[in-house]
Amino acid sequence: MVQRAKNNTIFTFLSGALVLSALGGLSACATSTAASPAVAAPSTETASAEGSVDDSLSHGGASLFVVHLMSDFDAFKKYFDEGEAARAKAGIHGHLLTRLDDGRVVVHLFSADATKLEEALKSPEMERYLDRKGAPESSLVWVTENELVKLPATPPTGPTFSLYLKLRVSDFSALARGFREKLPLFAEQAVIAEGLHRSVSKQDIAVLHFVGTSREKLETLPKRPEFLALLTSAGSTDELKPLVGADVSRSRPPLSSP
Question: Which CA distances in Å does 179 have to 21, 230, 247?
Fold first, then answer.
């Protein structure tokens, strides 16, 4: 994980993390794949799952998870959209941007290669983005490898919401095995896409990302006894701190074979 403060050139390094010089510049709309329609504005209503679901689970590739704190979302969104060139250089080929109720934003960026992603984050040429107008005040970053990812065969056209969980586990294999077994449980909670991701710097850190059509059902998922049993089987004892918000922008990564 990396923590960056916009107005301070000193970076805090946690768990062997990377220098983050161009976080905002990397958080951009992907152009290597056709972008799906912009996600509808946040809604408290349950939307229907309009995307058909592909039951296969893919493996491989990398994901960058970023939690941004900013005071001006519109300025940040402009900053986000203008980072396309830096995103392309970093090998980012898709994103999902989620807005939380407390003013923070979570960005899930997709890449084919964690090594290339790390090298791009370290690149001196990214420095110029650090103080651009609209940059977030501070950011937390996790670079991960995709262990299991399931995407709908076609993008949803209605509003969607995201649930993010960061966990410390002692048995990642048990977590992965249980993740596969709990796909029907996730579907019960109106989940249409899910991902299990493992930190590249701390092998006991997992990031779970669920996309669903019902915010209420997503908020309920971490409270389900079956879900809690899954975490227990993986040796997770930390207090759960789920992040749930409305998805406000997406660009779809290509589907890969399982």
Answer: 34, 8, 23
